[in-house]
Amino acid sequence: MRGIRFLLAALLFTATLGAQTFPRAQSGCCKADQDNLEILCLSSSAMKAHVLRTEEPKPPCCGKGLREQGIVVLSVKVSSEGRVMSFRVLEGKPLGIASISSVISKWKFRPAYDHGQKREFCGPLVIRYRLRDDSAKATVVSKAPH
């Protein structure tokens, strides 16, 4: 019974988000923001350094036996006050994307400064996650392993 519930939940996520992992985008910054001089484009290591507070993802209710881990890569746009304004999925598995997407808007970032002024910024955020039946863990890493 547990296996059937897990299989049904995995199929639901797969049908919702697509059967394959999402391909890596060409650029770290949101494409629409690359030409906007008001927004700073940061590297993945700089984005990691700006993370102040994270919230752990909730494990999806798939029943017992859930064991999944992997990498989710997001392009995140952050306000001058350090709040997530928007994000776009660049890469990841459906269950990981679902669990990280549900909490990323609650994360807080250190403001970025340019010539003494707080600025909006964007860039790739690489998150390693681990999902278990009763727990979930997310860790920001500098670069996605290949």
The proportion of strand residues reads: 35-45%
What count of domains describes the coordinates? 1
* CATH uppermost class: Alpha Beta
Shape: elongated
Distance between the termini: 36 Å
Low-confidence stretches: 1-28
Number of strands: 8
| CATH fold naming | TolA/TonB C-terminal domain
Work out the helicity level: 10-25%
Task: Please count the helical segments.
Answer: 3
CATH superfamily: TonB
Rg is 16 Å
Instruction: Let me know the average pLDDT.
Output: 78
Q: What do you see in this structure?
A:
The chain is an alpha+beta fold. It has a single domain, classed as TonB (TolA/TonB C-terminal domain, 2-Layer Sandwich), CATH 3.30.2420.10. It is 21% helix and 36% strand. The chain contains 3 helices and 8 strands. The strands form 2 sheets. Strands 1, 3, 4, 6, 7 and 8 form a 6-stranded mixed beta sheet that branches. Strands 2-5 form a two-stranded antiparallel sheet. The longest helix is centred in the N-terminal third of the chain and has 16 residues. 28% of the residues are buried. The N terminus is likely disordered.
Write the layout of secondary structure elements.
Elements: H1 2-17, E1 39-41, H2 44-50, E2 51-53, E3 67-78, E4 84-91, H3 94-101, E5 108-109, E6 112-114, E7 117-132, E8 136-141
Parallel strand pairs: 1-7
Antiparallel strand pairs: 2-5, 3-4, 3-7, 6-7, 7-8
